[in-house]
Amino acid sequence: MIKRCYSADCELLTWEWTTTYDKSPTVQELHESFEMDFPLTCERLRMAGRRYWLFPLISFNSAEGRRFRYLAVLGCEDLEPCKGIVGWRKNLGLVRMLPKSFWIYGAADEILRGSQLMCKDWGGNGLFYFLEGGTLTVLIFFEGRLCHWLEETGYEKDDSLKNRLETLRGFVKQDALFSRYETMEFIRIECPKDVSQTVWKNGLFKRAAMDPLGREINLCDDNRFVGLSRYAIFFVVFAFLLIGAWLWWIGSSKKSIPLEDVVPPELTTVPELPMVSEETVSEKVTELKPYMGTVTMKCDSSVRVQGVVSGKLFISDGKTFFRGDSLGGLVVRDVLKNGVLFSCRNKQFFVEVK
């Protein structure tokens, strides 16, 4: 069966939700918090008979707590194709609908996976921007993963775009996630001169729809999981019936075949071992000399401690460590409230949270 993907005009933005380190948000909490942050927008959507969607992008620890970032899709138009789709095809995800501007994600992904910037040590951290009709769209990737989407209008002049890019440079340097790397490439997305813009966008839209993130986005998902569960139960029951019938057929066929005793194989005789006198046994014992090489361990006390969680774990360079873990030659002895106690070569030193 062929999968089809439609597009709809939507507004996209990034929304962040912060909680404690050991908590994950529920669907109800997310929607209540989102409507509290955007009361006028949600009221406008309800008055127009429309809705919004929240799709997860990334979660990470910060000094303030655990942060979750979502791609918010608002006020989509042209959702009529969802109503005309046959129910079982929509429930199984064979027909999907994505935001029309999602082709920009395909363009950024093509650059990320291509060879245009492979000569630079940029680590997949890039800010991609596209300007058309005074509308600026910005996508920020962290280690090759989309983490921020921004759409703004009013950029008819080049000076306004230049000033906005400088503001974004400051935002990247201060952000709790993007500031972990010093390098952030700024890349402008433009249509090649020898390609039709319509053909170019359609190809990139298909590319984005096939991406793992694109497969998670579907604006026709009102009853998808309910319908999918019904079909899943049907297929599971049907599979069990087939397996049961197959096992019954194998059992009945075995009963119809008479069984005979298997002739035991002949065992070969064990060859006699020659007798060894005690005089031939050497009493000399060869000693193994211990390895005299030395193992050097680097005690690097310049490790950074970015945050401590309940005296159980700490964050260093975006990674989480527990008591007993090691960072090169350093061993984590204890996680305190204001820092971490390390040991190396029978020496101990304390690093405070910065």
Task: Please tell me about this protein's structure.
With 354 residues, the chain is an alpha+beta fold. The protein is built from 9 helices and 16 strands. The strands form 5 sheets. Strands 8-7-6-9 form a 4-stranded mixed β-sheet, covered by helices on one side. A 4-stranded antiparallel β-sheet has the order 13-14-15-16, with no helix packed on it. Helix 5 (103-113) crosses helix 7. The longest helix has 32 residues, at 224-255. The two termini are 56 Å apart. Mean pLDDT is 78; it is low at 86-91, 223-233, 259-274 and 276-297.
The SS-based structural class is alpha+beta
Residue runs with pLDDT of under 50 for 5 or more positions: 86-91, 223-233, 259-274, 276-297
N- to C-terminal distance: 56 Å
Order of helices and strands: EEHHEEHHEHEEEHEHHHEEEEEEE
Helix content: 25-40%
Strand composition percent: 25-35%
Radius of gyration (CA) equals: 32 Å
Principal-axis shape: globular
Whole-number mean pLDDT = 78
Q: Helical stretch count?
A: 9
Largest sheet, if any?
4 strands, mixed
**Total beta-strand segments:** 16
Strand order across the largest sheet: 8-7-6-9
